[in-house]
Amino acid sequence: MSNTRNPITEGNRRGLSTRAIHAYREMLDADPYQPITPPVYRTAIFTYPREDGPRVRGRPYKYSREDNPTLVYLERVITELEEGEDTLVFATGMAAISTLLFTLLKPGDRVVVSREAYGSTLRLFDRLHLWGVEVVFAGPDTEGIVEEASKPGTRLVFVETITNPLLRVIDVPEVAKAAREAGAVLVVDNTFATPVLYKPLRDGATFVVHSLTKYIAGHNDVLGGSVTGPASIVSGELWESRRMLGTTMDPGQAFLVLRGVRTLEVRMERHCRNAMSVAEFLVDHPRVLQVYYPGLPGSPGHETAKRLFPSGMYGGVVSFRVKGGRSAVERLFSKLRIIRPSPSLGGPESVAAYPVMSSHASLPEEERRKLGITEDLVRLSVGLENVEDIIEDLDRALSSL
Ligand SMILES: Cc1ncc(COP(=O)(O)O)c(C=O)c1O
After folding, report:
1. Is residue 366 domain-shared with residue 247, that is, in the same domain?
2. How far apart are CA 319 and CA 167, in angstroms?
3. What's the CA-to-centroid distance between 46 and ligand 1, angstroms?
4. 2: in domain
5. Which of 52, 110, 353, 385 is most deeply buried (CB count within 10 A of its CB)?
């Protein structure tokens, strides 16, 4: 699975879009029909392999719960983009995360997770005590995470590059240093940042996970997840877990993610530009109490963001607090025309989520308050529409409250 054999993308020296489009060139070149785009291998089984037949990670193709060439095309792309050694793809982001934890943890281990991680990730970690794992919810700031991560006996640390919904930027190099000193592995969920903004493996993360459902697939029409990391584990124990648990991706899903990822960089440029304009508009709006966006000078994570994201792009999600609490948010949602109320992010459509009713609904109110997730908080996934129209929609709806 080494990338260095690919003459088009060799050594990660090409630009990110070139790699997204050509990472699998030698697989296409080996196809007798010479397609330009990856084919969908819509098959559950393969003819009992010949000794000289195609292999992946040293193994012949036999059964699609184990390996399927369409998945391998996608795995090569994600490996290239994250500059890792190897990648496996999964049915969903949660399938990727749960399979990785199943692989790495054993009873008696101590794990540290950011208390501002995605809601289902938190619920998953919360259940690990049933398996005899000690779980510490830390942060949400980098300092709090580093303090817990550096304690001896820590086996695994889990953070998100940009947190949800308050869009804090975690200082991954600092957390990586603490984890390394404690002898722990660091897992970074890079879903909100994408490799266009940031590559956690360069800064000392051991594994990068993605909900491919979001920006990488990018069209709100498919689910998926990935884990990138050391080849010895990814193609060894993690691969064993994936086939045992059956958390693998379907080839039809892989095709859609492959189609989406080819335009990742141009989409991210537009998402981020639109989000910056929306954040600047919201800051000045009289019906808005507070805006959270790492690209805004003066916002808490801005200095870290500037250092970690040298491209000057800060993501496509903006959160804000509306004057008037829950009833104002409900009225706002009923007045928006272009922006739809919906829980996900990363697609072409601008969508607004209400964290207390969606991603963080199952957290006790006390815990939500501690995190700053208030009843007046809205999370906006800024889409690819013309930004004047997004702003006009927000302005009209906010002004009518
Ligand atoms: C940061 C983050 N990680 C993981 C997930 C889970 O991904 P999926 O919904 O593909 O299972 C999500 C979903 O919203 C997410 O936002």
Report:
1. no
2. 8
3. 32
4. no
5. 353
Mutate to test the pocket of ligand 1, among 113, 118, 161 (most ligand atoms within 8 A of CB): 118
Residues 96 and 177 occupy one common structural domain: yes
Determine the distance separating the centroid of ligand 1 and the alpha carbon of 92, expressed in angstroms: 8
Catalytic residue of the set 76, 168, 199, 214: 214
Are 43 and 92 in a shared domain?
A: yes
Query: Do 112 and 22 lie in a common domain?
Result: yes
Which of 89, 94, 158 to mutate for ligand 1's pocket (most ligand atoms within 8 Å of CB)?
A: 94
Of 375, 354, 393, 170, nearest in space to 274 by CA: 393
For the CA of 225, the nearest atom of ligand 1: 10
- Ligand 1 geometric centre to CA of 265 (Å): 20
Residue 214 and residue 269 in one domain = no
Contact 161/172 with Cβ under 8 angstroms? Answer: yes
For 211, the 3-state DSSP assignment is strand
Strands 340-341 and 351-353, bridge-based pairing: parallel
Instruction: Report d(CA 357, CA 362) in Å as an integer.
Output: 8
Tokens representing residue 144 in the block: 């709090």
Q: Does residue 273 sit in the same domain as residue 253?
A: no
- In a structure prediction context, what are the per-residue pLDDT tens digits for the chain, which is 401 residues long? 444 466 666 655 799 999 999 999 999 999 999 999 999 999 999 998 888 889 999 999 999 999 999 999 999 999 999 999 999 999 999 999 999 999 999 999 999 999 999 989 999 999 999 999 999 999 999 999 999 999 999 999 999 999 999 999 999 999 999 999 999 999 999 999 999 999 999 999 999 999 999 999 999 999 999 999 999 999 999 999 999 999 999 999 999 999 999 999 999 999 999 999 999 999 999 999 999 999 999 887 899 999 999 999 999 999 999 999 999 999 999 999 999 999 999 999 999 999 998 878 877 888 888 888 999 999 999 999 999 999 999 999 999 99
296 and 248, same structural domain? no
The ligand 1 atom at the shortest distance from the C-alpha of residue 344 is: 14
* Span from the CA of 215 to the centroid of ligand 1 (angstroms): 11
Residue 52's domain spans which residues?
Answer: 10-261
CB 390 within 8 A of CB 274: yes
Domain count, the chain: 2
Residue 5 lies inside a defined structural domain of this protein: no
Q: Are 394 and 339 in contact (CB under 8 A)?
A: yes
Domain of 153: which CATH number?
3.40.640.10
- What lines the ligand 1 site, CB under 6 Å? 92-94, 118, 120-121, 160, 164, 189, 191-192, 211, 213, 223, 225
> 199 with 310: CB under 8 angstroms?
no
- Final residue belonging to a domain, choices 236, 261, 286: 261
Give the ligand 1 atom nearest the CA of 97.
4
Residues 177, 271: one domain? no
